Amino acid sequence: MNRLQAIALCVALANLALAVAFPPYDYLSLARGNIPTFGGFHFIGAPPAQGQLNANFLTLEVFVILINAGIAWLLLRTRTARAGRRISRGQRGVLWLMAINLVLVLLFPPFENYYAITKAALPSFDGFYFLFGDNGQRQIVATILYIEVCLVLINAGLLWLLLADRGREKLSAGEMRRLADSLRERQHRD
Q: How many domains does the chain fold into?
C-alpha cells in the first residue's frame, strides 16, 4: 500500500464513521397515518422523536463509500511491473465516472410524495430531489435507488471490460521461436 492509498483508506474510514454516526431517519407522522417521510440525518445517540432509522438508505450509503474506496484504491496504485496488468486510460475514466455517478445518485435520490405512497408492489415516483433540501413531505424510494446503483455498477463493469487494454501477450523465448518456425513452415507450404 502506498501513501496515497493509505490516505484514501483513511478518508473512506472517516466517511463510514460519519455515515454511521449520522444515519438517515424517516419521520413517522400521526397526521399522515404513520407513513414515513424523510426526516434528515441525526446523531445516532439522539434520534428524533417519532423517528425511524432508514436502514435501506444507510445500507446504500455504506456500499457506495466502500465501492468508492475500492475505486480510489485502484486509481492510486503505483505503476510498477509487479502491479500486474495496467489500467488503461479508458478504464481510469470509467472508474472516475462511476465514482461520480454513485455520489450523484445518493445526492439526488428518487422521492415520492407521502400522499401517493401505497402498499402496492411498485412504488410511485415523484422525481429526483436534492438530499439536503426540504423533503419533509417525501419518502425516498429505496427500490428505485437500488436499481440505479446496480445499473451504474453494471454499466461501469461492461465499460471496464470493453476498454481493457488489449496489449500483446508476453511470450517466452521458446514460444516465440516455435511461433516463428510455424510461420516459416506455412510460408514455405504456400
A: 1
